[in-house]
Write a structure and sequence with these properties.
alpha/beta, Rossmann fold
Length: 291
């Protein structure tokens, strides 16, 4: 078994989408899938036994329905169900400590004003020790693939080419973890990796763009050698990093951004670029921690 993928579920549409994305990723990696549901017993004037049986029964049903849905779509996948009597954030962070990747659902914000991304998703993505993939409600396995003609049977979907993987690259703070995650994701999908670097002009003129392009080429050279079969397209753009990276995700199947581990006593959090992408990108977002 090649690793472990953990997905948190709570019965919401976004967590259902996250569970199925995680299951598909586990199939791609040959990994085990662990489905986690966290619940907390609420204090009521009712007898303890009645309260526990009612709330625990509901929690078990949420977990069971998620697992049954995943197993129906992937009958040969190794799936483990885990019920944790703890609030969502600490429960997911504890599960992430033993995971290769954690997957959670997110409401996002969309391109127009709307509902902000869930606080649980943001807090987990900002503190987890492993990569966290955030998936929106309504995402399906077909959405990872290029558009097809209507009427395609579900078993035909895997044969359709995948959409590209996008990597947001910061040459001022280069790190192996997000780059490696993005190359691996593109390799597993046999699809193009689009590397996007955004710089601020600051009066540097054309020399600024040329210097950025040379830096990107040099930074990616060893990765080309390690992944010779991955097709890579690079884009160096002037502007605001968050805005430009969100634009680069149009038509993508996955976007990868980094999150620096600061060791702050105030707790880890997402940087402004990662935060913007999580809120606005339509495709799943992988937030990868690095030192």
């Amino acid at each position: 078994m090649a690793g472990r993928i953990v997905v948190g579920v709570d019965g919401s549409p976004q967590s259902v989408a996250a569970a199925h994305w995680a299951a598909q990723e586990a199939v791609r990696r040959g990994a085990e899938l662990v489905v986690v549901h966290a619940w907390v017993t609420h204090v009521r004037p009712a007898p303890l036994a009645t309260r526990d049986s009612t709330e625990r029964g509901w929690a078990e049903r949420v977990l069971r329905e998620a697992v049954d849905s995943v197993r129906a779509a992937h009958p040969t996948l190794a799936v483990t169900a885990t019920l944790i009597a703890e609030s969502a954030v600490p429960a997911l962070l504890s599960a992430a400590a033993e995971a290769d990747t954690l997957v959670v659902g997110t409401l996002g914000l969309g391109r127009a004003a709307g509902v902000l991304v869930g606080s649980v998703s943001l807090r987990v993505a900002g503190r987890a020790p492993c990569p966290v993939v955030l998936v929106r409600a309504g995402r399906s396995a077909a959405d990872e693939h290029l558009p097809t003609a209507p009427g395609l049977a579900p078993d035909e979907i895997p044969s359709i080419p995948y959409r590209a993987v996008v990597l947001g690259l910061d040459i001022d703070s280069p790190c192996d973890e997000p780059i490696g995650f993005a190359f691996e994701a593109a390799r597993r999908r046999t699809t193009e990796l689009r590397v996007c670097h955004v710089y601020e002009q600051d009066g540097a003129g054309p020399e600024g763009a040329a210097a950025a392009e040379h830096a990107v080429i040099a930074l990616l050279r060893p990765w080309h050698e390690k992944y010779p079969d991955v097709s890579v397209a690079t884009t160096v753009t002037e502007g605001r990093a968050g805005d430009e990276l969100v634009r680069a995700t149009d038509g993508a199947g996955l976007v990868v951004v980094g999150r620096r581990i600061t060791g702050s006593r105030l707790g880890e959090r997402l940087g402004h670029v990662a935060h913007a992408v999580v809120q606005h990108a339509e495709c799943p977002v992988a937030v990868v921690p690095h030192g």
